[in-house]
């Protein structure tokens, strides 16, 4: 089965195809992208062309559900759901940090205790901790200097954030994005997908403006009707 993987929860725009029969993988990832909304569909189209296939050959879709920023998650999850609805194929949601941990285990198989951190903005980090394949804690959001980093063999931190963490010299630090292979490996493709639920963990940056009194120049009867 040919499976499309999408993740827009981090600054990396991840798209990939995995043939679950042969394990052949095609990947099209934009690193440090701030234009997920404009780039996602063209990336998927380019990916399909590079694999010499098309949308109608897809059997399932896997999408990262965060944690991540409101806009980034909305772009990836809404696009994945739209593809799934149009093609009438299942769409599976996964925790992005679980996929990062899985990819880190492939690259560093001897690491036992793993901490995954991504940029939450507002001088905070999204985090989750792992023992082997099991997630122990998280995902959560916290100030980097409030996170205990002393008990881990391996920590994935975006390079731009590293100076904000207090990491022991004995701990290896990497920057591991989610990969298509990892996104697909952590989901049971034979199961019935649950509804997609974004892991926002906090309210979006945008807030509804507070109401203001109407101008007294507006006739009283119209002011009453607007209440």
UniProtKB/TrEMBL annotation:
GO terms for biological process: tRNA threonylcarbamoyladenosine modification. Gene3D superfamilies: 3.30.420.40. It comes from the Bacteria. Pfam families: TsaD (PF00814). Residues 32-131 form the Gcp-like domain. GO terms for cellular component: cytosol. Residues 207-227 are annotated as: Disordered. NCBIfam families: T6A_YeaZ. This is tRNA threonylcarbamoyl adenosine modification protein YeaZ. It comes from Corynebacterium spheniscorum.
């Amino acid at each position: 089965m040919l499976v499309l993987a999408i993740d827009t929860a981090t600054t990396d725009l991840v798209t990939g195809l995995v043939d679950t029969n042969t394990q052949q993988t095609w990947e099209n990832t934009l690193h440090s992208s701030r234009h997920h909304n404009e780039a996602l569909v063209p990336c998927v189209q380019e990916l399909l062309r590079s694999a010499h296939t098309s949308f109608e050959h897809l059997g399932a879709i896997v999408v990262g559900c965060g944690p991540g920023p409101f806009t980034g998650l909305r772009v990836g999850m809404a696009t994945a759901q739209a593809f799934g609805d149009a093609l009438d194929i299942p769409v599976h949601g996964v925790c992005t940090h679980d996929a990062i941990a899985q990819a880190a285990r492939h690259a560093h198989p001897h690491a036992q205790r793993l901490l995954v951190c991504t940029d939450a903005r507002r001088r905070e980090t999204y985090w989750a901790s792992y023992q082997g394949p099991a997630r122990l804690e998280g995902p959560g959001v916290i100030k980097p200097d409030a996170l205990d980093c002393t008990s881990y063999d391996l920590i994935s931190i975006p390079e731009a954030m590293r100076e904000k963490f207090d990491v022991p010299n004995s701990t290896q630090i990497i920057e591991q994005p989610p990969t298509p292979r990892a996104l697909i490996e952590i989901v049971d493709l034979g199961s019935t997908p649950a509804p997609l639920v974004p892991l926002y963990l906090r309210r979006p940056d945008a807030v509804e403006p507070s109401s203001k009194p109407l101008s007294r120049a507006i006739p009283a009867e119209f002011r009453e009707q607007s209440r």
